[in-house]
Amino acid sequence: MIKPTSKIAFLLCLTILAHFAFTTRMAGQIDKTKPTVNNCNVYKGYLSGSIDLWTKGIAEQEEIYKIGRRSEDIYVLILSKYGFISFLIGRKIEYDIMALIISAEADVGVLATDEKFSARATAFKGGLIAMRMNLNPLKAITLGMKSLRLIEESIEADQNNTVGLVEMGNARFHMPSLAGGSHKEAVLCFSQAVNLFETEKDDSRCSWYYLHALVWLARSHESTGNVAEAKRIYEKLLSIEPEFQWVKLELYPEFIKKWGS
Fold it and tell me: Is 14 part of a structural domain of the chain?
């Protein structure tokens, strides 16, 4: 039979161990240098093309940020809005896109006050200017150069920030060669970003941005004539998310039709 004093000591040890396990687990979850939790409804919206899931995820993320006012949470909020804006522009969907851009720009202003996220905030500024350019092609030259300059500044400040690398990849892929466009350079940018996601220097869990980087890496490889690598990446995407509608129903079938299986 265990003596009362022994019981107390035993329970005290259990309490200490439980507290240690909890605090260790929380410390592992909250890394102040990067976001710890991406919004999974936003991710599902990206996979399915559902506007309802995009907007639901953004609303959820706004509430999460209001509770803790953490830079990590507003970062995920900006990324969520950023993806939704890109989705709307890419699909030519009627929506008040400018209101979303203005809202995201205000959030970026807040994020920029945190030094740990300042490089990413600068990249977001550049990307959002590029989105304004999409809505106002007459300002393409001035806005395009301003966007590129900010993205370059972002990478100079932090060569391992995925936002800067992905947005530089986007810029190099879409810009005319005379203005600095290069599909080979796009491959390098997207490759580096994907590597950062996959080595856990950035969070790939429920990350639409990780899949986005893979998609454009595949398209960049295809554009440079590296068809085998593009095919490998498309198949990798479908192994990660078999129901990724954009890849499953559009990109990969078009690729196979053009290049064969």
Answer: no
